[in-house]
Design brief:
The chain is α+β, with helices and mostly antiparallel strands. Helix content is 59%, strand content 7%. It has helices at 9-24, 35-44, 48-54, 63-76, 80-106, 108-120, 122-128, 134-152, 177-193, 201-215, 219-244, 246-249, 258-269, 272-288, 290-311, 326-337, 342-365, 374-384, 402-409, 438-441, 465-474; strands spanning 390-394, 420-422, 433-434, 447-452, 475-483, 486-493. A four-stranded mixed beta sheet has the order 1-4-6-5. Strands 2-3 form a two-stranded antiparallel sheet. The protein starts with 8 loop residues before the first helix and ends with a strand.
Length: 497
């Protein structure tokens, strides 16, 4: 029997990377930024000292991402596609690296299949189109796993022009400290991108342990322990700052139940059907692919279980935090597909793509579960505002970021905000502080725009009572617009009796 021709080395990673760009790229600007992205923009547009001053107050664990995006905005601007471009690039890199790692561990067809499976997942498109650090963490998780594989298989370079002929990468001389330092830096960068993603080292610990048991030589395990310990120690200040802010940051997260754990794959993959598809193939790869099958399986399973366990104690169970395990599950699935003929493996990948189409469409409709139309509200204000108009929000606090949404979409045209006592910038926070006497602060205002969450028929129903009372006493509603997730009302000052 003639063996199928092996794809060229560069095609193994280039094809999945290109397919990821083709699938995840279209629509990158079609959905407006949702509240998490507005928080990103609000922080990243500040100066570097102002971003650093936020650290003791809010979102410390996201500070590295905000600093990176600050520099990016300075270069290319803050349009929607510009804000999301780094995430798109990170997901393209993640797919290519997954293919490269699959080739290194299991052969070229495993790499191609794994990379293509990453490319067709709705979660890949979803987080490639969001200005948050999840895509970067995903790429760094694959990079760290690849560097670990290079160290533990005693092979630093993956320049195999002829491809792997055996069941795994060949062995050579033990990896030196320089190579292990590169792995440690990748783990540090992973935690810097998203602290929760460091849970991946639980699976990596299994790889180091299995290598020790196989080789009866503890040098690799001890070097893994040293560099991983150093990386985690360097991340400790960030973890302590994040822990101190935990109650303020994640007080909206409910405690998970056992059913949430079983529903996690569908939530992580952003598609129950493709999650079942990949998890089933990954289980097969886990069973059939020996030591590295076990390692990759535990790199997926252990972070999930650890996050669930932690979330049962403190509010932490947010399934998008586990996005970084998706390529590793796809890698196991690709390793299983490589046992079939290449045409059959490609047909299965295409079937997964076809099954994902409805969810691919869903992730492009809106990122916001509340469907808040910030852009529509801003368009109404821009079209109808007059010089001297003012604006107020109901509510200003909480996680909806109504003021940031209007500030983003009305750059240069935002009405003055008379109720602000201390801005978010002045407070080194994401939230402004309002004046304690709304009636006095609203004095002299002729027309007032109120952008509020809809609560019944009252346009001020979502607003704090004292602020709503001051507006009712001084203003009368002139016109009202209803939008998805928002109500915009134009008030005019009451005429003196």
């Amino acid at each position: 029997m003639v063996k199928p021709e092996r794809p060229r080395t560069w095609l193994v990673w280039l094809c999945p990377a290109a397919v990821t760009l083709l699938i995840a790229g279209p629509g990158v600007a079609s959905t407006q930024p949702w509240r998490d992205e507005l928080a990103t923009w609000s922080a990243a547009r500040r100066s570097i000292p102002e971003i650093v001053r936020m650290v003791p107050h809010v979102d410390a664990v996201s500070t590295p991402y905000y600093l990176f995006l600050h520099g990016w905005i300075a270069l290319v601007g803050d349009s929607v596609p510009a804000l999301r471009a780094p995430s798109l690039a990170a997901m393209v890199v993640a797919a290519g690296l997954t293919a490269h790692l699959g080739r290194y561990l299991f052969g070229p067809w495993a790499g191609v299949s794994a990379g293509l499976l990453v490319a067709v997942q709705p979660s890949t498109a979803r987080y490639a189109q969001e200005a948050r650090p999840y895509a970067a963490a995903t790429a760094l998780a694959v990079l760290a796993t690849y560097l670990l594989a290079c160290c533990l298989t005693h092979r630093w370079t993956a320049d195999h022009s002829g491809g792997n002929a055996g069941p795994g990468p060949p062995a050579g001389r033990p990896a030196g400290w320089g190579r292990w330092a590169a792995y440690g830096l990748a783990v540090f960068a992973l935690g810097f991108a998203h602290l929760v993603a460091v849970l991946l080292v639980a699976g990596h610990a299994v790889a180091a342990l299995l290598t020790w048991l196989r080789d009866r030589d503890g040098r690799s395990a001890l070097r893994w322990l040293a560099v991983t310990g150093a990386a985690c120690l360097a991340l400790l200040p960030l973890a302590l700052l994040g822990g101190a802010e935990h109650d303020r940051q994640l007080n909206w997260v409910p405690m998970p139940h056992l059913g949430d754990l079983f529903r996690a794959p569908g939530s992580v993959f952003r598609s129950a059907i493709t999650a079942g598809f990949v998890v089933g193939l990954a289980a097969l790869g886990w069973a059939l692919r020996g030591r590295w099958g076990w390692v990759l399986g535990l790199c997926v399973l252990l972070p999930t279980l650890l996050l669930f366990a932690a979330g049962s104690v403190v509010p932490l169970w947010v399934t998008r935090y586990l996005t970084f395990v998706v390529p590793l599950a796809c890698l196991l699935a690709g390793a299983a597909l490589a046992l079939a003929r290449p045409p059959a493996a490609l047909a299965i990948v295409l079937l997964c793509l076809a099954l994902a189409v409805p969810d691919q469409r869903a992730v492009r409709r809106s990122h916001d579960p509340d469907q808040i139309d910030y852009a529509g509200a801003a368009a109404i204000v821009r079209a109808n505002a007059r010089p001297g108009d003012a604006i107020a929000y109901g509510p200003r606090d909480g996680g909806r970021f109504l003021d940031a949404g209007m500030a983003y979409h009305l750059r240069g045209h935002l009405p003055r905000d008379p109720l602000v006592r201390s801005s978010a910038l002045q407070r080194h926070s994401l939230w402004a502080e309002e004046c304690p006497d709304p009636a006095a602060c609203l004095a002299g205002t002729g027309r007032l725009w109120v952008v509020a969450l809809p609560r019944g028929s009252d346009p001020l129903g979502a607003m704090e009572k004292r602020k709503a009372k001051a507006i009712r006493e001084r203003f009368v509603a002139l016109r009202q617009w209803s939008l998805p997730g928002l109500r915009v009302t134009l008030f005019t000052a009451r005429k003196p009796a």
